């Protein structure tokens, strides 16, 4: 696996987490 593919995978996971987090951030 190349570094670029790993970076893309990590970015996808971060985006998914960010999509779920805003609701929690608003409550706080």
What would you note in describing this structure?
The protein is mainly alpha-helical and 28 residues long. The chain has one domain (1-27). The chain is built from 1 helix and no strands. It has one helix at 3-27. It is rod-shaped. The mean pLDDT is 82. This is Copper-exporting ATPase. It comes from Rhodococcus opacus RKJ300 = JCM 13270.
Mean pLDDT across every amino acid position: 82
What fraction, in percent, of the residue positions are helical?
over 70%
Strand count, sense and barrel status of the largest sheet are: none
What is the beta-strand fraction? under 5%
Number of strands: 0
Could you say which structural class the secondary elements and strand pairing correspond to?
mainly alpha
Radius of gyration: 12 Å
* N to C succession of SSEs: H
Number of domains: 1
* Subunit arrangement of the protein: single chain
Please tag this protein with its features.
1 helix, 28 residues
Summarize the structure.
By secondary structure, the chain is mostly helical. It has one domain. Helices cover 89% and strands 0% of the residues.
Write the layout of secondary structure elements.
Layout: H1 3-27
Organism: Rhodococcus opacus RKJ300 = JCM 13270
Protein name: Copper-exporting ATPase
């Amino acid at each position: 696996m190349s570094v670029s593919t790993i970076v893309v995978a990590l970015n996808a996971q971060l985006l998914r987490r960010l999509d779920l987090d805003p609701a929690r951030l608003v409550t706080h």
